[in-house]
Amino acid sequence: MSLLDADFTNPTTHVMLGVDASRVLPEEERGVLPVRVEPNLEFMSPAFYSKDRPLPLRGRELVDALRELLAVTRWSGRVLVVDTPPGLSDSLLELLRLDRGARVLVVSACDRMSLVSTRRILEFLEQEGVETLGVVANMCSSCSALKESLGIEPLGCLPLIEDLQSLEGEREALARALAPGLSEVLEKILALLQ
Amino acid sequence: MSLLDADFTNPTTHVMLGVDASRVLPEEERGVLPVRVEPNLEFMSPAFYSKDRPLPLRGRELVDALRELLAVTRWSGRVLVVDTPPGLSDSLLELLRLDRGARVLVVSACDRMSLVSTRRILEFLEQEGVETLGVVANMCSSCSALKESLGIEPLGCLPLIEDLQSLEGEREALARALAPGLSEVLEKILALLQ
């Protein structure tokens, strides 16, 4: 699988993956090779090029940087997962414009603010005719809040991990903690992508 | 005090304040009057104009909308607090460009991702010569993580509220829950603004 952190305003996926972006530079070879984090996971982030330092991009600059990173990277995964900022970000809007076949997986917490945000995104995707893979409830004490509020059955529920802070960057421990809900969600997503 | 939600990509401050943005429209009278949420709090949000529905803005459009909302609103508070999205957002960058006297209050959680993000923002503000009011540790189980990681004494620490989800939109209960850390932080900020 290939993974791109498309949150140019605040890239932090590398931190969750335990990758020190200030010390890693993707190799160049007729393009740029994403960084192999696990045998089956290659990863790219703007933080590699900013050395995890500030990267203040304005309007059009951000979209140009996203397009360049997408274009120069030699992705080899069968699926490219793009992590976008919360809400209707310029990154998300540009990705949907570039690839009309892209499908969106909406990840939502279950508090009121998250549900308001998720309802807006789902309405937008429906307006635009963008196919969604579904909604994953994340960090919800009860999965039913999402169903009650949004009227849709979530694709799956990831558990609320009390000790999440200490797991950031610890890939194996993180995978173990998420496993109960995550394996079911991943199976469903892979089936939808067949 | 005046408060503006400048997160055009995902406005949710109104939800925390218990304001139904789909039913409230700011009055117009030689400009636009912000909505009075409490006797001493007036509030403005792009969600009032989108009726809390999707508002997909691209690059320059977002900055234009921010400038317009700032300009047409008849602020009466002595202090205007602007809530910006996480990281080095276009909203934050534009606000710093518009008002070289603006001062930044950095709010940070204490997990690794938040600390990486906060370090980048502080480095950027220092490079740009922007004066900060300080850093407030938010939702940290221990305030020391922030000091150890960033090497700065936080202005204050807001408590980790286990039951935050149920307090969203409940202004009085929220104020009570936050009071232990918040009143100290507010006093310090007001002193800095003298």
Write up this protein.
2 copies of one chain form a homodimer. By secondary structure, chain A is α/β, with parallel strands linked by helices. Chain A has 8 helices and 7 strands, in the order βαββααβαβαβαβαα. Chain A has helices at residues 13-17, 47-50, 59-72, 90-98, 112-128, 144-150, 164-167, 171-193; strands spanning 2-5, 35-38, 41-44, 80-83, 104-108, 132-138, 156-158. In chain A, the strands form 2 sheets. The first copy, chain A, has a 4-stranded mixed beta sheet with strand order 2-3-1-4. The first copy, chain A, has a 3-stranded parallel beta sheet with strand order 5-6-7, with helices on both faces. In chain A, a hairpin with a 2-residue loop joins strand 2 (35-38) and strand 3. The longest helix of chain A has 23 residues, at 171-193. Chain A is globular, with a radius of gyration of 17 Å. The two termini of chain A are 14 Å apart. The mean pLDDT of chain A is 94. Chains A and B meet through helix 3, helix 4 and helix 5 of A and helix 3, helix 4 and helix 5 of B.
